[in-house]
Structures are given as structure tokens and as C-alpha cells.
Design a protein that fits this description.
Blueprint (H helix, E strand, L loop, with lengths): L2 H14 L15 H10 L1 H15 L6 H21 L7 H17 L6 H22 L6 H28 L3 H18 L2
């Protein structure tokens, strides 16, 4: 599939994304412990964070293993802070769905990024997840503790994905990332139904 068709596919998926949240309503956001658990409570978060870690392992520079996950964390925190300051961004939930599908498609196609492109893609995905977290923060008894909690778990998930990617590459098991990518993309598409 050429790049133009890939872009068309991602655009179509974005247009079909649902208006409702996958993991952003009906859960407690009181403090640190809930922040720790939140990225594990929604498959959208879990899959994107693992996928970004896998993509980081596949970037062309060895520094990507740190830089790409760091960009994800910074953009996620920035998104949460933007929402806390009153910035309203439309289509956050659709952006989350697109991030899940896009991450899966990119992995399935074994797209290799330059360091800068990997950082930009990871930050773009993370911004939407951070905006959704920030929208929940007014409900939190301790917003700073909640943010710290979800950033800690996010770090662990990103590093786990990166390590899985490194292991798959070292054992020439690139098919694992591709099959995993298909699974992530399928989940994202099914979430729109």
C-alpha cells in the first residue's frame, strides 16, 4: 500500500470514529492510585502506549528508545495541562481512536521512522490522550497526584513496548510487531462500531 493510500485509510478511519469515549467516563480520578491504574483500565491507552514503545524500537536511531517515549510523556502531560487551563479541543475522542488505529497500521506495515518523525508521531498520539486525562482532572481530589500516577504507568508501558520491540528485532521476529499492529488496528476499528 503506497503512502497516499495509507493516508486515505487513516482519514477514513478518523471520519468513522465514534463520538463517545472508550475509557474516559465513569471511573474514579481521585488521586495517585487511580492515576496509576487508569492507563491499564482502557484498552485504548494500553494499546497505544505499547505500540508507541514498539515503534520507538523500530526507529532508525538508537536514541529513539528514550526520545520517542519521552516525547509521548511530555505531550501527554502538556495535553492534560492544556485542558486544565481551560483550552477546549474538539474531537478528542476521535483523535484517540485514530491514534489507536494509526499506531496499529504503522506497526503492521513495519513503517520505520526517522527520530524526528517518530517523536512527532508519538507526541501527536499522546496529545489526544493527555487532553482526555485533563478533562477528567476537575473531578480529581488531587490532580497533581493523579497526573503523576498516570505518567508513571505510561512510562512503564512505553518501556515495555520498547523492550518487546528490541527483543523482537534481536531475534528477527519482526512479524510479532506486524501481527500486534494488526491487532491494535482491528481493536481501534471495532471500537468505532
Amino acid at each position: 500500500m503506497n503512502k497516499r493510500n495509507q493516508l486515505r485509510l487513516l482519514t477514513l478511519v478518523g471520519a468513522l470514529a465514534p463520538l463517545s469515549a472508550m475509557a474516559h467516563t465513569g471511573h474514579e480520578v481521585a488521586g495517585f492510585f487511580q492515576g496509576i491504574l487508569h492507563p491499564l483500565s482502557g484498552a485504548d491507552h494500553l494499546l497505544v502506549m505499547l505500540a508507541v514503545g514498539l515503534m520507538a524500537a523500530g526507529c532508525s536511531k538508537s536514541r529513539a528508545g528514550i526520545a520517542v517515549p519521552a516525547a509521548f510523556l511530555l505531550a501527554m502531560g502538556a495535553g492534560a495541562l492544556l485542558t486544565m487551563t481551560g483550552v477546549s479541543v474538539p474531537y478528542v475522542e476521535q483523535g484517540i481512536v485514530v491514534s489507536v488505529v494509526a499506531a496499529g497500521v504503522l506497526l503492521a506495515l513495519a513503517v520505520r521512522f526517522t527520530l524526528v518523525t517518530g517523536i512527532a508521531v508519538a507526541a501527536g498520539f499522546a496529545l489526544f490522550h493527555g487532553l482526555a486525562h485533563g478533562a477528567e482532572l476537575p473531578l480529581a481530589a488531587s490532580p497533581a497526584a493523579y497526573i503523576a500516577g498516570f505518567l508513571i504507568t505510561t512510562t512503564v508501558l512505553l518501556m515495555a513496548g520498547s523492550r518487546m520491540g528490541q527483543l523482537a528485532d534481536s531475534y528477527s521476529l519482526g512479524m510479532i510487531s506486524r501481527v500486534g499492529g494488526l491487532g491494535v488496528a482491528a481493536f481501534g476499528v471495532l471500537a468505532t462500531v
